[in-house]
Design goal:
The structure is a single chain. The protein has 235 residues and is of the alpha/beta class. It has helices at residues 42-49, 65-72, 86-98, 150-153, 155-158, 160-163, 166-171, 195-202, 221-224, and strands at 8-9, 14-17, 57-61, 78-83, 108-112, 118-123, 128-132, 185-190, 206-213. A hairpin with a 5-residue loop joins strand 5 and strand 6. The radius of gyration is 17 Å and the shape is globular. It starts with 7 loop residues before the first strand and ends in an 11-residue tail after the last helix.
């Protein structure tokens, strides 16, 4: 269903799909946190905010400006960000750290050499976690991130939550049953690499009334059509 502003709503286990122009993150000096710029039009931003509320549990593949604007600024109840660019991880960590209440205990930091040298930072008081899985970029072409083949290059990023050891999952309060991982997040935003694969991974983490947000859906509809086999459009 068109929203009249260039976006398409999908509901479901649900998806709300909106175009954007990409995200730009300002540089950080060691002694400050710079608020990143969200490069979306007001209608696009408002479309996302229609689904993200203070009670939302927010999951995202790709981090930075969206972490700040839709996670920290909205004051969601939980943030879980997955990132594969080391520099972006550093910036997002600072964003999450700036959101911790005064006097908070130090975040839990874990290094997982057995999992592609992934690292995890967990801020208990603000219920925020950042999972970093460093991956060397295989291409600088924007369109590459929309193709199904990109899963092979970014598998560790896509499957980061499934691959976490169960003991680590418990430390960051991921509920992992014996046969399924599900119904823990209300909103999932997929705006990094391997978007189709990330969107399909998000399905089992969303509540039945959850929302998936995929930027650039209309621009790359032919590459994204697989997503609609698992998510139903809003009537």
């Amino acid at each position: 269903k068109s929203d009249g502003e260039g976006g398409v709503h999908v509901e479901a286990s649900v998806a709300a799909i909106a175009d954007d122009n990409g995200l730009a993150i300002a540089g950080l000096r060691p002694d400050e946190v710079v608020i990143p710029s969200l490069l979306m039009t007001e209608p696009e931003r408002d479309l996302v905010l229609k689904y993200v509320h203070s009670s939302s549990r927010f999951l995202e593949w790709g981090s930075g400006a969206t972490t700040r604007h839709f996670g920290v600024d909205v004051g969601v109840s939980r943030i879980l960000s997955i990132e594969h660019q080391p520099e972006q991880c550093r910036k997002t960590r600072n964003i999450l750290h700036s959101n911790t209440p005064p006097g908070s205990s130090a975040p839990t930091e874990l290094q997982l050499a057995s999992l592609d040298n992934a690292s995890i930072v967990y801020f208990a008081e603000s219920e925020a976690a950042l999972v970093c899985v460093p991956i060397a970029e295989t291409s600088t072409r924007w369109n590459d991130r929309h193709h199904a083949e990109s899963y092979n290059a970014y598998r560790a990023f896509v499957d980061a939550l499934e691959d976490l050891p169960e003991s680590v999952g418990r430390q960051i309060k991921l509920q992992r049953g014996s046969s399924a991982i599900s119904e823990q997040f209300d909103v999932a935003l997929v705006h990094g690499q391997a978007r189709v694969a990330c969107a399909l991974r998000a399905f089992r983490w969303l509540t039945p009334s959850g929302v998936l947000i995929v930027p650039d859906f209309e621009t790359h509809r032919s590459q994204y059509r697989t997503i609609l086999k698992f998510y139903t459009r809003e009537a």
